[in-house]
Amino acid sequence: EKRLPKDTQFINREVSVFEKYFGVIVATIIGFILQTLIIVTLVYNIHRRKLAESEILMKKAELQDANDELSVLNDEMSASNGQLIAANQELKEAFCEISDQRKHIYDILYIDTLTGMNNRLGIIEILDQLLTESLEKNPFYILFLDIDNFKNINDTFGHDLGDKVLHEIGQRLRLLESERFKVGRFG
Going by C-beta distance under 8 Å and a sequence separation of 6 or more, which residues neighbour residue 112? Predict the structure, then answer.
């Protein structure tokens, strides 16, 4: 047929299946290729999705572990915080007790128990403070009061009444006390 002229017409010529269905075969091959490409793409996407899901599951497990660790740490910190609060409360109580004891010791050392005024040591402490300050800026005066014949009160009426007299005199003198006027029992 290749040697025959181009315009030759064939009668009852057998056409091959390939020639007869060339368009269908080409369309089928193209469809098959497209379906194969779609299947390969879907398989690739499924594979990527499975990898992503497994990675997400791993990250979820890691996050869960981290969350569990954080929960344990949070519980430990809460317990530690409770311990710190308790220790802080104990320290506050100890500080208050120390302050009370310090005031009590100060009172024992510097306050006369009978009159509530400064005792001899308290008066000396006040004088030391005054002497360390500049005398030109803060001049001060010392006044000694003596109760004449107080020994006769003790001897005649007893020491209990003598203590009451000293206590009353101390109370009256303490009413005069201010920032610039201090009183005390020296002897």
Answer: 118, 119, 122, 170, 184, 185
- Mean pLDDT throughout 106-123? 91
Record the tokens describing residue 8, joined without a space. Answer: 């030759």
What is the Cα–Cα distance from 126 to 139, expressed in whole angstroms?
13
Rounded Cα gap, residues 114 and 186, in angstroms: 12
Specify the pLDDT at position 91: 95
What's the rounded Cα separation, in Å, for the pair 176 and 170? 10
User: Is residue 20 over pLDDT 90?
Assistant: no
The DSSP secondary structure of 77-118, one letter per residue, reads HHHHHHHHHHHHHHHHHHHHHHHHHHHHHHHHHHB-TTTSSB
The two three-digit tokens of residue 162, written as one number: 């003598």
Chain position carrying tokens 């506050």: 92
- Distance between CA atoms of residues 69 and 66, nearest Å: 5
Whole-model pTM?
0.49
Q: Half-sphere exposure (CA, 13 Å, Cβ side) for 86? A: 6
Please enumerate in sequence order all residues whose Cβ is within 8 A of that of 186, keeping only pairs 6 or more positions apart, or say none: 119, 120, 123, 144
Q: Where are the alpha helices (DSSP H) in 133-186?
A: 150-157, 159-176
